[in-house]
Specification:
single chain, 325 residues, alpha/beta, Purple Acid Phosphatase, chain A, domain 2, 6-stranded mixed β-sheet, 15 strands, globular
Length: 325
């Protein structure tokens, strides 16, 4: 069956805000396990919520630590980060490297192996037109690679195969969605070495499939999509691609292609929307992906950040009332 997308959405499920479980049944003999998918953390040193004073710790670091504490209680085998771990190095700021160090110090509290996907906010210096930035060793992928290693790679767990892809490049001092020819060549050779029956999970920051385009019928979102998506998906023809994990959009959606038996799941965000300023796309959170044989199910984990903010606001109001009295 060709993976060219004559897209028949037998089941397309979109979630703006959920704490939901979804399961696809198909049997095999793999061992059971679970893992975390956490995306769009946008870790930064600023306090962003406008209604709370600086005396309250509502920083992104605090939120990330709460999310990590929640994840550590779930018994997951490992975590995949879906990109935009930090915010933001695209302008080549002199302090950009410190964001990666802050993130690495914070994520070290996660008591499991962590695999990173590159996001657009980790593309160093691409918004800067200065040629000196373009000649810098950290330009574009360099800073990410220095901290985390290659931007595309694979690993195995149990009988499942995981592929982390780099869905980003630079064009005209802006990021674009594409899978490089070098990466396509690597993936073609790599998949030739994989047993066709092996279940495969792919992580990519920019989405391969999303309903967001249908919701916001506009071309202004074109840089949010991977322009050679069909070429990429064709490489998986004849293979057992089960799940594509996506980030970037800060929405929670699960699109199931019944014809191909593939889930395309966009995993919400830790930072919320607008980033660290509100909850317009629902609760901040992450996914617990559960594997049983070849069955895939997931839970959206709300780590309670909105409640934390509301409690802070309530406490401030009560203290203000006490002072007035």
């Amino acid at each position: 069956m060709s993976m060219k997308f004559t897209l028949i959405f037998i089941c397309a499920i979109f979630f703006i805000s959920c704490s939901k479980n979804n399961t696809n049944q198909k049997g095999s003999n793999n061992e059971d396990f679970s893992f975390i998918f956490m995306t769009d953390i946008h870790l930064q040193p600023k306090h962003r919520y406008p209604n709370l004073p600086q005396t309250v710790d509502y920083s992104p670091h605090k939120a990330f630590s709460v999310a990590i504490d929640t994840a550590n209680k779930l018994g997951a085998a490992f975590a995949i980060m879906g990109g935009d771990q930090v915010y933001d190095v695209m302008r080549g700021q002199v302090w950009a490297d410190s964001l990666f160090h802050d993130y690495k110090n914070a994520v070290a509290s996660l008591n499991m192996p962590v695999y990173h996907t590159i996001g657009n906010h980790e593309l160093f210096g691409i918004y800067n037109e200065d040629q000196a930035i373009k000649d810098h060793q950290d330009y574009k992928y360099g800073m990410f690679e220095r901290h985390f290693g290659k931007t595309y790679y694979s690993f195995d767990y149990q009988n499942w195969h995981f592929i982390i892809l780099n869905s980003l490049d630079e064009e005209g001092n802006r990021y674009i969605g594409t899978i490089s020819e070098e990466q396509i060549s690597w993936l073609r050779q790599h998949l030739a070495e994989i047993d066709p029956t092996t279940p495969i999970v792919v992580s990519t920051h920019l989405p391969l499939i999303s309903v967001l385009r249908q919701i916001h019928s506009t071309n202004t979102l074109d840089n949010r999509w991977i322009k050679n998506r069909d070429e990429l998906l064709d490489l998986f023809s004849g293979h057992n691609l089960k799940l594509v994990l996506q980030g970037h959009l800060h929405i929670m959606e699960d699109i199931y292609i019944h014809q191909s038996d593939i889930h395309f799941i966009t995993g919400g965000s830790i930072a919320g929307r607008p980033s660290w300023q509100g909850f317009s796309n629902g609760e901040p959170g992450f996914l617990l992906i559960k594997i049983k044989d070849q069955d895939i199910s997931w839970d959206f984990i709300d780590f309670g950040w909105r409640d934390y903010i509301l409690n802070c606001e309530t406490e401030i109001l009560l203290n203000d009332e006490k002072e007035r009295n």
